[in-house]
Structure formats: structure tokens, C-alpha cells
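Tutorial, part two.
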Amino acid sequence: MKKQKKGLAIGLTMVVLLAIFMTFATLALGPPTATHFGVEDAIGYKDTQVLIPVNITNVQNGPVPAIIFNILYNNSVINVVDVQRGSLTSDWKEPSLCNYDWGTRIALVYNASNKHPIPGGWSGSVVLLNCSVIGGSEDTSELNFWDVQLAEGGPFYQVGTASAKNGTFRVLEYGLITGKATDSRGRNIEGITVTLKTRDSGVVKGNTITNETGYFSLTNVEVGDYDLRFSKPRYIDYSTTLTVQSGETKTVNIILLRRR
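Running the prediction step on this input gives:
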């Protein structure tokens, strides 16, 4: 029995030592890296602000307690005005940024008191870029990443990088839907409820009522495919589909029939 206990103790000790060895062997494999670091293609509407997540995919040789990177873009199309912590850095220190003619340099580091660096194998957003959209309709800007630095913690403190995932930002303008409702005799119909819904999900994106001349308008309509519905008591409902492009004005004139 004593021999069995002694053998078990030795076996457990070997397992612990092996685990420690493997930990340091993993740390010694090389500087931290990741499969990708960057953004997906993004869109935003003129004269608005949009959040663009910067993502890291499949961290390797981690953990990673600090990140620095540059993002190059056309600042006549968009401009980074602020930066927020991402899903993987929610308890890190506030990120810092410096804007230049060519783009923005961003640095962030974990909060040592919390000790939550990004472990190996993890993926998610590291920061959210708050961008002001200042270009015109259909203007584009490349979002190119350069000099990505991923710092490793102790005991080796190596600095690695990751393959850049560049994207393209495209500027859109809101559309306008307008029109007029009449009856079968050509008389204007006031008080018709006009409802705009997305065609795929049925989410209401706007509603209004025709005025005394039968006219209506829906402003700030996002690019997309829609169902447009007209309804009023004692009248037969009418629906139509339409697609709104960037900056487009759609005119929809309808005839609403009375119920018999």
C-alpha cells in the first residue's frame, strides 16, 4: 500500500512538472502573434459617426497584455475622433490615440491590478474606432493596418505581430421616399398611415400620415429593400416593395380604393 501511495505521489509530481515545463515551453516558442488583426469592410452615412471594431483572431503564443498599431485611411472621407475598449479589453486601461495626416496610431495596455491579458486561442474586438463620416456619397477609403505590435508578458517580454486584415469604408447617404395618395376619382386622401418595413426582417423603419393634399414623405431612409404599406379605415390596404439606393429619392404615388 505504501509503495502504491509513493508511486501515486511520484506520478502526480511528474504530471505537475510536465505541466510547468509545457507552460514555459509554450512561452518560449516565440513572440505572440495571431491569425488576423484588423477590420471587416464597413459603411457609414454622411455627417454621422460610426463605430468600427478592430478584431484580433486566434491569439497564439499569448497571453498579450499590450497592443500598438497604426491604421492608415483617407481623412477627407473619415476621421477617427475617439477610440473605445473592445470586448477583449473591457477592463484594460483606456486606449490612447494620436492622429496624423496619414491616419491614427493607437496604443492600449492591460490593467495590471486586474491581470487580464488576452490568452492564447482567443478572438474578438480589441478596440472600437469611433469615426466621423465626412465624405460624400459613395466615397471610399481603405482601412490599412501597419506596424501591428503584440507584446508578451513575462518572463520573456517578446514583441510579435499579426497578419493585417485590411478593409474598405464606403460612405452612404440617406434616401427619401415621397408620394401622393388619391382615390379612384383623383381626390386627395388625407390621414392615410404609411408604414415602411425592412423586407427581410419586418422591422419598422419609418411611418407617417398623408397630409390634406394626400402627400407624404419618409426621410433618412437607409439603403435597403423595403415593404411600404398604406392603410386607412374604410379603405382597402395597399402594399408595394421598393429598393432604396444611397442618396436616392423614390416617388410612390398610389390609388387607394374604398371598401364596399
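Residues 1-28 have pLDDT under 50 and may be disordered. In part three we will examine how such features are distributed along the chain.
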